[in-house]
Amino acid sequence: MHREERAISCHNLALNAWQSLCQFRGSMTTADATHQPVLDLTQISRPVAHELKLVEEWLTTNLIDESPFVGELLSQLFASGGKRIRPLITLLGSAASLSDPAVDKAHSKLARVHIILAVLTELIHSASLVHDDVIDAASTRRGKETVNRRFSDKMAVLLGDLLFAQASICLSRIMNPVVVGVYGQVLGDLCSGEISQMRQHFSLKVDFDAYIQKSIGKTASLIAAGAHCGAILNARPDSEIKALKDYGINVGICFQIVDDLLDITSSTAKTGKPVGSDLRGGVITAPALYILEREDDMAKELSELIRTRQVENDEGLARAVAIIKAGGGITKTEALAKEYGDKAQAALSVFADSDAKKSLIDVIQYVLTRVS
Ligand code: FPP
Ligand code: MG
User: What is the CATH number of the domain that holds 29?
Assistant: First the structure.
């Protein structure tokens, strides 16, 4: 079978899964969700639970490759969890911007194209993480050994590329040139976000604008693409498309700020990653920037720990973390994340109330309060 035929057969498998699962639509109960905590992802996902299940099915069973070794690697990668926050936001953005059936019946229901959009958003995310672990020389992700650690950097680069290729096939099946352009831009943004982060390694310059810009590039751009491309496919007016893009950018910045916070405040057991790895690797994020801008003794001590690379050692890192905590770096970073969360919520004001809109708002709360 030729490469292109294989790709199509893989997508046909996914289409079959979509069609068969569609037959069970409506048969799912929500009773199990009532036993969950007030704000958890299962509950937030409820308006798009069925579609999210199809996305999961696609990622865990339909990403086949003719090499059993690669196929196994792909299934292990997607079976190892992940919050699936990007597909969730993609589906919720698509659902919040559906047309009124009385006005435009063709765009009044979630369709296969929205599932593919959500799948491709997660594929790009996963590919970028596989590459990111090479850049960061990371040994664990989601509590599991990274591909670079288990095999080699070369293998991880190629597996990441393979995932980008799978995402391109999805993109071609959406058949919308505007969406192709948005995701093309996202790939560039991911790279330039990482490049600017790399150029700021161990930098003591307090530049919040540069920090936010690189967070948009490496994280918010992809989340924003997922959030607003459904509205493009739904042929919605520019005001709605822009609102969802603004939502995605702001919730994405908020997500990255909280990620940077968790690097200091969380535990390996919760995040599946070593604590303090940003600082150890010279990535100076908001909690440290708030200390460095103080220009007092705390700022001087933290600067020295970074300048002399003592943060690369356990003792120096522990001291840096203690300074950040004592100097209010955590509280200020929480407030910064909340600012972007508020902007994300404000962007949704153009939409009438709906379950999907409520869940988009709940996603912000989830992002702000998540512990892993
Ligand atoms: C994780 O950040 C990394 C990202 C969000 C994006 C990484 C992007 C690339 C490596 C470029 C991708 C390449 C192409 C070809 C588009 P983090 O290190 O802050 O988070 P972590 O703690 O989960 O590792
Ligand atoms: Mg990383």
Answer: 1.10.600.10
